[in-house]
Write a structure and sequence with these properties.
Helix content is 82%, strand content 0%. It is mainly α. It is globular. The N and C termini lie far apart (47 Å).
Length: 241
């Protein structure tokens, strides 16, 4: 199973065979809390900057988007750099999320609270299903996830191209379905991340790999929050109108 993910395959191949301190669930949990705390810190900073300097809103979004892409890529490819670049990713992604959340809060009051509580609830349910072995992340699950995710990305790309050429226009129904599917994919990736964490601990990976495992689940939780927030705004803003 561990070979299905490029990052964890690299982790396995690069793991040393000498004596070393191994990864633990507690270590991964603490590092995940650290990454999420950096995200919250970035969000607070983004909201503060947007309120005090509204003219730089879009510039902050652009800078945040570029930096998060760079830091995410480095974090996924380098175990040694993940501790630093993962924290920087969360900080700047938090900045972007803060800006987006501020905008969504002005569009629909209470949307951010709903998204946060929904994200926590989904994570709790996914964790319960995983640890109770009700949902098993096996090779079949991985194949389904990859095929489903790739099919979704191709569909979104096709719709985007058609919309750009004005040969097709996204309506409320299609937008709602695409957002719901994206949220579902993010949820499935939580199962995948939990399995990678299990393999990291039970496979006795060196302790430094805790940062990589923590970054993976933090990345997915942030993604899930954004998707749920978008879904909430789409549904309830339409209802209010």
């Amino acid at each position: 199973m561990r070979y299905n993910n490029m990052v964890f395959r690299r982790m396995y191949n690069n793991a040393t065979t000498g004596t070393y301190e191994v990864a633990t669930y507690k270590g991964i949990a603490l590092k995940t809390i650290f990454f999420l705390a950096m995200t919250v810190l970035g969000a607070i900073g983004g909201i503060f900057l947007a309120i005090t300097n509204p003219t730089i809103y879009y510039a902050l979004l652009a800078v945040g988007g570029i930096l998060t892409f760079i830091f995410a890529l480095i974090s996924m490819l380098s175990v040694k750099a993940c501790k630093v670049t993962g924290a920087l990713y969360c900080l700047f992604e938090g900045l972007s999320i803060g800006l987006v959340s501020l905008l969504c809060a002005t569009i629909l009051e209470g949307s951010v609270t709903i998204a946060i509580l929904s994200t926590i609830t989904v994570f709790a349910v996914v964790t319960l299903l995983f640890v109770s072995n009700i949902v098993k992340v096996n090779s079949g699950f991985i194949r389904f996830l990859m095929i489903f995710a790739i099919s979704y990305m191709v569909t979104v790309l096709l719709f985007s191209i058609l919309s750009f050429t004005k040969a097709f226009e996204l309506n409320f129904g299609i937008t709602l379905v695409l957002s719901a599917v994206s949220t579902f994919i993010a949820t499935l990736y939580l199962f995948f991340d939990l399995e990678q964490i299990r393999q990291t601990v039970e496979g006795n990976y060196p302790k430094e790999y805790e940062w990589m495992a923590s970054f993976g689940i933090s990345f997915t939780l942030i993604w899930l929050y954004v998707e749920i927030l978008r879904l909430v705004v789409i549904v309830f803003a339409r209802h209010d109108n």
